[in-house]
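can u do me a favor
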């Protein structure tokens, strides 16, 4: 059965930005959709969120994983920890290195197994904007694509694809829906 798991970003919920719209659109297309409320969303910590996601999500060959912002490094860690190859992974405003400073970010692993992760998905898509205010921009998309392969979509002037801080409501995301539906 087609299924999708959507991981929200820092400070967000399953009701933030385009997530409810995407969930409804996918359900119309007969996807089973899981949008878990990640614990400690205001200060994402891999040591808390990874076990939660592994316990509360089911992954199989029909799974599409979608991550927004801090949901993306969580997905990278999930892919290291599961023993199944999912159908597709889409990173929205994703990142895999510390953003804007040298301090440790507890949602990011110090090192990723870049040899193991690509074998855990049939397809990778990166959607990054050229003007993300937090640095989850095209540079980050290119870093991940270099390690994982896949396709990078550069969105012009789309910011963070949803942000309370910058009043970017982003209630619908047709580009993302199209990327999910493409084979």
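np, heres the sequence
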């Amino acid at each position: 059965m087609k299924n999708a798991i959507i991981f929200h970003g820092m400070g967000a919920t399953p009701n933030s930005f385009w997530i409810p719209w995407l969930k409804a659109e996918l359900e119309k297309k007969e996807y089973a959709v899981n949008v878990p409320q990640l614990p400690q969303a205001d200060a994402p910590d891999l040591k808390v969120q990874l076990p939660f996601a592994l316990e509360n999500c089911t992954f199989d060959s029909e799974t599409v994983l979608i991550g927004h912002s801090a949901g993306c490094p969580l997905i990278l860690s999930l892919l290291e920890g599961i023993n199944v190859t999912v159908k597709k992974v889409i990173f929205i405003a994703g990142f895999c290195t510390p953003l804007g400073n040298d301090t440790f970010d507890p949602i990011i692993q110090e090192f990723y197994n870049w040899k193991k992760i690509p074998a855990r998905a049939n397809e990778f898509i990166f959607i990054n904007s050229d003007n993300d205010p937090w640095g989850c921009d095209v540079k980050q998309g290119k870093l991940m694509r270099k390690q994982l392969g896949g396709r990078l979509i550069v969105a012009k002037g789309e910011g963070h694809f949803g942000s309370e801080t910058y009043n970017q409501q982003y209630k619908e995301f047709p580009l993302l829906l199209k990327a999910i539906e493409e084979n």
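The chain has a mean pLDDT of 95. hope that helps!!
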